[in-house]
Amino acid sequence: MSNEHRSTSTETQSQPGPTLLTERTLSGIFVHLLGLGTGFVLPAVIYLVAKRDFTRENARNAFNWQLLFTGSFSALLGIFAIGLAFESWAPDGTIGQQIGRAFILVFAVGFFAFTFAVLINFACGLIAMAKAIFGSAWSYPLAPDFLGWIEAKTDGSVTFRTVLIGYVITVPVVFAYLLWSGLAGGPESGLGFTIGFVLVIYLIITSVITPGVLIRDARMNDKSDANWKINWLLYVTSPLAIAALTYVLAAVQFGSENPSGDAFYAFSGAFWLATIVYLVRQQY
To answer: Model-level pTM?
Structure first.
């Protein structure tokens, strides 16, 4: 009797824990929290580089929701910009000025309503994270499946190489405008400032997401091509090392007022070169 009890107890203790514990990942759980702070940017990166279905599904849901949220806010800012443009350029008492004021009024009402949307965004992110802790991927309410639509339009495979080529083409344009603006003493008009601001935001977003695209592209090629010899690690870590070195030199050696900005531009430039090398090596 005693031996039977001891055997049963030992067997119970040796049984493996729930498979749920091995399926969940920290990145799949905290991607929702990261989305609250970075919008769709970091969820997109996690979706691109993740290998586990649990992580990718949660990142997908977070990306779809945050793209809807940040896209709505961007549209609201666009309405405000259009209103300011009409208000500034249209002569007094004309219909153009009235249109501008109407746009600004729409922005004011929308901005007031958006304060409640911020609370909803925060609540949904916490709910999704709690659901992920218990092992499920919660779909946010009213969020279209943007990633599903993209994959359907591309027959289930995103054209990552096209994204990399687009990055290579557009980054020099951004740097050229920022350099010209700096040499000219800064933008003299509101339009020039707006263009510069939009380009900087574009550079930040693409420089964060595109490394994830490169990693995903390299992994897909590694699976489909037995002769694939390119290691993505070098192409991502080298720009990071250059950025870290730039930060130290800018802060210690040159006393820069914005070493973080200097490091970011160094990373963007270095990764731009790394992307070119990666694309060229694909051809040979």
So the answer is: 0.80
11 belongs to a structural domain: no
Q: Which amino acid is at 25?
A: T
Helix 190-224 and helix 232-248: axis angle, to 10°?
Answer: 140
| Encoded tokens for 116 | 């409640």
Q: Which residue is associated with the tokens 């977070």? A: 62
Where a domain ends, among 145, 170, 201? 145
Asked if pLDDT for residue 186 goes beyond 70, the answer is: no
For residue 2, being part of any structural domain is answered with: no
- What is the C-alpha to C-alpha distance for residues 186 and 28, in angstroms, rounded to an integer? 42
Domain co-membership, 77 together with 189: no
Tell me the residue type at 63. F
Give the separation between CA 219 and CA 235, rounded to whole angstroms. 13
Judge whether 239 lies within some domain.
yes
- Please tell me the predicted confidence (pLDDT) of residue 158: 61
Residue pair 213/160 in contact (Cβ under 8 Å)? The answer is yes
pLDDT above 70 covers a percentage of the chain that reads: 87
Q: Do 47 and 92 belong together in one domain?
A: yes
